[in-house]
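Please produce the structure of this protein holding magnesium ion.
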Amino acid sequence: MNIKVSETATEQLVIAPELKLKKQPSILRIKNLNVFAGNHHILKNINLEIPKNRITVLLGPSGCGKTTLLKSMNKLTDLYKELKVSGQIYIEKDDILNTNKNIPNIRQKMGLLSQKPYPLPVSIYKNVAYGIKLKGVRDKKLIDYNVEKKLKEVGLWDEVKDRLHLSPESLSIGQQQRLCLARGLAVKPHFILADEPTSALDPVSSKIIENLFRELKKHYTIILVTHVLRQAQRLADNVVFMNYGEIIEQGNPEKVFKYPRSSQMKEYMVEGN
Amino acid sequence: MILKRVVFDWLSRTWMITALAIILSLPLTIGIALYFKANPLFEMQSLARLISSSDWSPSEGDFGFLPFIFSSLYVTLLSFLFAAPVCLFAAIYLTQFASKRLIQVMHPVIDILAGIPSVIYGMWGILIIVPFVGDVLAPVLNIKSPGYSILAGGIVLALMCIPYMLNMLIETFNTVPIGLKEAALSLGATRWESVKHVIIRKSYPGIISSYGLGIAKAFGETLAVMMVVGNMVQLTFNPFEAGYPLPALIANNYGEMLSIPRYDSALMFAALILLIVILIINLIFRYFIYQTQKQ
Ligand SMILES: Nc1ncnc2c1ncn2[C@@H]1O[C@H](COP(=O)(O)OP(=O)(O)O)[C@@H](O)[C@H]1O
Ligand SMILES: [Mg+2]
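Below is the modeled complex.
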């Protein structure tokens, strides 16, 4: 009980003074991560620490390995038999790359938001309820309550409450993306892995997602992949710049964006602006 | 210059419309031609009697098509029951779980199987399936069977349909975006759950149309079935007995149809039934697809 109180207390501290970011303990640590596809060295000895309740932005030109890095974090790389992954990824205490723990449970800690919304081929309601049911919850009232709560969290409830049992195909792309976010949040992840979540969206919907992320970082640790420099500048608490499968620079955005050390980062910033 | 382009545009457009019209009218013209050819039969017996009677003695003017219709449906149904689950699970395995290596090996194998002429399937049926049914399966079950039977026809037909349906199902499953599977997995689904809840569900229309096309093809398949099914006019539910499907009736008697009065009309009518049943099968499956897409 005591612990719980102090936890929320630190969270509160973080929320209030947005600017004065206290250094948070890192809860995701990547050590010597290498990913190969045949001879292609996709990720080269990645070492990375992700701070809790922050938005860590993975920035870099397309093809540099951002998606692969993100997918390593929830073991979706397993789906691609051609990929050879080595190293360690510690989530909280477990090294997920070398564990015999149940993989679906690990993945439920890592909510995924992909580049394009992929609503499941079931109703809007069932999309959000899906993960909850996978957790073994059977109580209809409890599921109803959570579906509503999560749809409210992403500001979608008023737009869909009259058509919960229709297919999500009738929603706009922006709404579908928020539905996918709600569905991911419903399984109570600790992290949100977002892979260019606004690249398929119109500016207004993008703005909504960005604002949601600002809210959500109070409760979740967010890893946001983007190749949009301005988005990174708007949202990042921590920046990781990658190129050709390597981390070139990382750290506080104030420093990294204002005083880039590497020529690659400088070049990228010139082109991006 | 402009004139030339306008003319070409006009020509290409009319050409396309004509081609389309020919394709669209083809089933209709075939149907109409068969109807008129079969017409003398209708003057003699009512349609209801033709398809519900099982008296078949052409020389006495008795044309009851029920045994043939029944045999056709029975053989097709059996082949579907054998082939459908096999194809579904094989397609799921190949698209969702198998290594790239296995898929690379299987693709040409399936194509070769699909390309084997039906007479070879028939020969193979006579050599393997007929003795298997007559000398192994029937004695084990304590049933008498000539081997040449509806069951043998169903098995051979299933084998012929498997590569055909399998190819279509693989195509279907491959069109499901991998992102959808990743979404289910990242929500905590196991691989099998992601297949069951997402891949199969998303593929419903494709699965149904693959099955529909497979059944339609099975219903019309002639040669291989004819070689193993026994070709005896009888009405029986026992799959170990011989049957006589419609296509076999037409193919077996086409040469001598002019020797007996109205026999030619009867065979044309058999062809018409075949055409209509295939149309009905298609319509039913279209309806299913429409229903699943509506949801
Ligand atoms: N399954 C795979 N097999 C082979 N190569 C891959 C695979 N996945 C990614 N790659 C390669 O790895 C590189 C990085 O890809 P990706 O992580 O998608 O980059 P980004 O998300 O930064 O655009 C690309 O060159 C891509 O072609
Ligand atoms: Mg990417």
